[in-house]
Amino acid sequence: MNQQLDHINRWIEGNIGIIELNRPHVLNAINRKMISEIVETLEIYDSLEEVHVVVLVGGGRAFAAGADIDEMAEVSSIELERLNQFRDWDRIAEMKKPMIGAVHGFAFGGGFELALCCDILLASYDTEFAFPEVTLGIMPGAGGTQRLTKLIGKNRAMEWLLTGERMSAQIAYELGVVNRLVPKELIREETFRLATKISTNPAMSVRLIKESVLTAVDSTILEGMKYERKNFSLLFSSEDQKEGMRAFREKRKPQYKGR
Ligand code: CO8
């Protein structure tokens, strides 16, 4: 699978499914068609056994400079309701496989929101993050006020969201928005290295760990612990658990099947 759609490129390398945003002439401004192509691809990757991890990158000089302002400028509230476009964004959050974002240049507005949908985020040192919506007379609508607040806390999120100011990659790293900072020329290589590492682990463990961590974000510790224990027990019915522990005891490399 190596395809160029209208606004994204998609291809598979080893066990990694890659999505590259591809509207470089507008710094990958996200329009409705692009989001639907991203979601369609994520759902294909989620259903393909050979794909273990998904990587999201931006083509050109930015990850994404926000939602497409040209598409939004004249739209009415009723039209927005009718389009129900956030349904596609909700589907991103339903993705079972881990999604790693590799951002560079700008991750603004909807581009920052897309980055926040990722489970792990790498950024090049030159990346600037921002929610400029407030300066345009709107506000984030694809999870920005919620995900940023959960990630960095109320007061800090409030400052970035109310000022619309740019956050450097270094600050984003210090606040825990970004996992790793990488030189620009190495961002894809480093991201693929990390994705490959995760992709060699048993797929069902990876899947249930992701699910359990996401549960932690939205539940009490007691509810989360119950969920974790169910998933822990569940893994003992997988072939990979038997293989992993047998291989350890036999002092050999495990052969995982994703079952
Ligand atoms: N929408 C449409 N076009 C854009 C966007 C955008 N968000 N960002 C950049 N472009 C276009 C520019 O208009 C320009 O086009 P042209 O060459 O035809 O003039 C081209 O991309 C290159 O941009 P610049 O010349 O401005 O490049 P600079 O390096 O000078 O500046 C910036 C880069 C600072 C990123 C600047 O382009 C900018 O400020 N862009 C707008 C950023 C912004 O306000 N983003 C937030 C948009 S609102 C939003 O995201 C709401 C999300 C709601 C939920 C999601 C729903 C889908």
From TrEMBL:
Keywords tagged on the record: Lyase
Record keyword Lyase present: yes
Upper classification of the organism: Bacteria, Bacillati, Bacillota, Bacilli, Bacillales
Record-stated family: Belongs to the enoyl-CoA hydratase/isomerase family.
Stored CDD domains: crotonase-like
Biological processes per GO annotation: fatty acid beta-oxidation
Record organism: Bacillus coahuilensis p1.1.43
Entry protein name: Enoyl-CoA hydratase
A Pfam family reported for this protein in Swiss-Prot or TrEMBL: ECH_1
